[in-house]
Write a structure and sequence with these properties.
alpha/beta; five-stranded mixed beta sheet; 5 strands
Length: 156
């Protein structure tokens, strides 16, 4: 995939991540693009805002896209490496490609997706990295809840 196109599509996901952060949520955004480059759906992590543990950015973008007869050739764009839940969605519906803003903060299931034939485009985007690192630093408990891990012990 052309890097310029991947970065242009990532901008949609970053806008969603920033909107989520402004709402008090986890700054992860996603977008689903059709094989022809049409934006099918976009969304952001809304776990905190909606109190819904399944409201991940990728699932929000997928739901916003509505029913598609086929997901062949589609691209899921996400600001952060997809967790196992969202990786399963990509695999279940045969989404062909995942563009990832960054995977340093969290290395989800993208290696597994690649092993199963999904094209992975990892951009190592500094804006995505800064968004997530700032959030993790300021809200470690929410972050650890989001990734399903125990928060680190805090000094007494």
């Amino acid at each position: 995939m052309d890097q310029a196109q991947a970065r242009a599509w990532l901008a949609t996901a970053v806008a969603e991540a920033r909107a989520g952060l402004a709402e008090g949520g986890v700054p992860i955004g996603a977008a689903l693009y059709g094989a022809d480059g049409t934006l099918l759906g976009r969304g952001r992590n809304r776990r905190v805002q909606d109190g819904d543990p399944s409201a991940h950015a990728e699932t929000a973008a997928f739901r916003a896209a509505g029913r598609q007869r086929s997901y062949r050739g589609t691209t899921m764009v996400t600001t952060l490496s997809p967790c196992w839940y969202c990786s399963g969605l990509v695999r279940q519906f045969g989404i062909a490609r995942v563009v990832i803003g960054e995977a340093a903060t969290f290395r989800g299931g993208h290696d597994w997706l690649a092993e199963h034939g999904v094209e992975i485009v990892l951009l190592d985007d500094p804006e995505c990295l800064a968004l997530m690192r700032g959030f993790v630093r300021e809200h470690p408990d929410v972050w650890h809840e989001d990734i399903g891990a125990e928060p680190p012990e805090r000094p007494a």
